Amino acid sequence: MDHIDKDGFRANVGIIISNDAGQLLLGGRAGNSGWQFPQGGILVDESPEEALYRELQEEVGLLQDHVEVLGVTESWVKYRLPSKFVRRDSKPLCIGQKQRWFVLRLLATEDKLRFDATNEPEFDRWRWVEYWRPVKEVVYFKRRVYVHALRELGPLVFPDGVPPQPRWWPRDWIADPDT
Description:
By secondary structure, the protein is of the alpha+beta class. It has one domain: Nucleoside Triphosphate Pyrophosphohydrolase (Alpha-Beta Complex). The protein has helices at 48-60, 133-137, 143-157, 171-175; strands at 9-18, 24-29, 35-36, 39-41, 67-72, 77-80, 96-106, 123-129.
């Protein structure tokens, strides 16, 4: 059972997987055209680290020894679901997610990536993308969370400096995407 706090936020882990070239793994949502990072709920009595490894195996078939954890966000990063996505008849009511984001380096070969670890796979394809590309690919209401996680964790992937934002970057995010 997922953990939903008293404010209606579902506890969740977000997983950013990088390769040696500094590219990030995006998963294509099964049955539709959407792309996103692996992520998933934290079960009651499960730590974020335990959820990380469970979700990593369920969503992309990777085991703990296939990756190196480079870091995790200092605190929870929250987003609210748009009203049309809130399931008002669910108890407890979930209005959004609070996430701890982990950044990992892939140590294994790409042939270890697989989507058949569960009966209902989250993804049916994957690709490597440039560092900021996931912000443009993810569903609109998760974009600011992606920006927050990538800004905070970027120096762990790029110790000599995170790549600059691309030309398509929204002007109002240059100063602070969280406002």
